Amino acid sequence: MFNVVSRIGRRRALECSAAGVVVLGLLLWWLLPLGEDPPGGTITLSTGTRAGVYQEYGVLLRDALDKDMPDLKVTLLSSDGSQENVRRVATGQADFAIAAADAVETYKLLGSPGAEQLRGVARLYDDYVQLVVPTDSDIRSVADLKGKRVAIGSPKSGVRLIANRLLKVAGIDPEKDIKPSSAGIDVGPEQLGHGLDAFFWSGGLPTDGLKTFTEQAKLRFVPIGTDLVAKLHAQGGATRYYRATKMPESAYPTIQDAPVPTMAVSNLLITRADMEPRLTEWLTRTVIRSRDGIGAHVHSAQLVDVRTAIYTDPLTLHDGARRYYRSVKP
After folding, report:
1. What is the pLDDT at residue 50?
2. Strand partners, 19
């Protein structure tokens, strides 16, 4: 009898021990889900212009990566925006970058150098098109921009792509019917009423570089109607990534008391096919897990979610990113 009880006791002890090992393994998987030591080395991340969301997000992501991968040096490169970022990654001048989906698709459709090497890491958040004018302006629609002095973004920015396309579907030739300016988010808002009649911006909500001026100056947003978005969609190609939406009044409460019709496009974190898979897997993990920390400072980053991050169309997922998403699949 004693031997039977002893055997049962030993068996239960082994079962409890095995269960403990499993629990410990799961705990270690949570703390270091990718196994082994964190990867090191040096990478470059191309962000955006001063006062823009890309740059702010990039700085905070670098801080998060430093905590997760202390032996990884992350160099940030400022840029004019999406178009320059896509080109940099495709041609090896940067390892990772943030870019709008329409800019990525445009680069691919043009068959530009290295386009076939581009890969997606994560879908991040949406950019909203923001057309800003002084409160007393007579501009009430995109069509009213004809003959005006308009900031349409730098030639390498995603803003320039969007502004030119919107102007054209509104019946305006960007080269002949307006007086174009390359002023960006870093200087454009302060020039409104002082050399500029209107200012185009495409960014996450709210963009701090614009929010600061909405609290100091008398500005308002010009609505971008669903009719213009529908015309863009009808063109196909890269314009299929635009969607009609409304900018909530909470975005810029000092100058908004109602939602403003506009359009949005998703932002992607991109890389190349030859980027080391384990490093990309770790980086993807940091992007997802740092959402709340970054989102406390960059409001739009709160929308980063593992359930939607995998949709990086028009790019296929990088193998390292795919491996991470599979490891956390419910």
Report:
1. 84
2. none
Residue with tokens 């949570």: 30
Residue 105: pLDDT over 50: yes
60-76 average pLDDT score: 97
Is residue 39 within 8 Å of 282, Cβ to Cβ?
Answer: yes
Asked whether the whole model's pTM tops 0.90, one would answer no
The token pair at 6 is 């002893």
Nearest by Cα to 330 from 306, 301, 304, 303:
306
Distances (CA, A) of 187 to 53, 82, 190, 209, 254: 15, 18, 6, 9, 20
CA pair distance 16, 10, nearest whole angstrom = 10
| Rounded distance between C-alpha atoms, residue 5 and residue 11, angstroms | 10
Check whether 44 has a pLDDT greater than 70.
Answer: yes
DSSP state of 52: S
The secondary element (H helix, E strand) that includes residue 182 is: none
Angle between helices 53-68 and 277-289 (to 10 degrees): 110
Contact 64, 138 (CB under 8 A): no
> CB count, 10 Å around CB of 301?
23
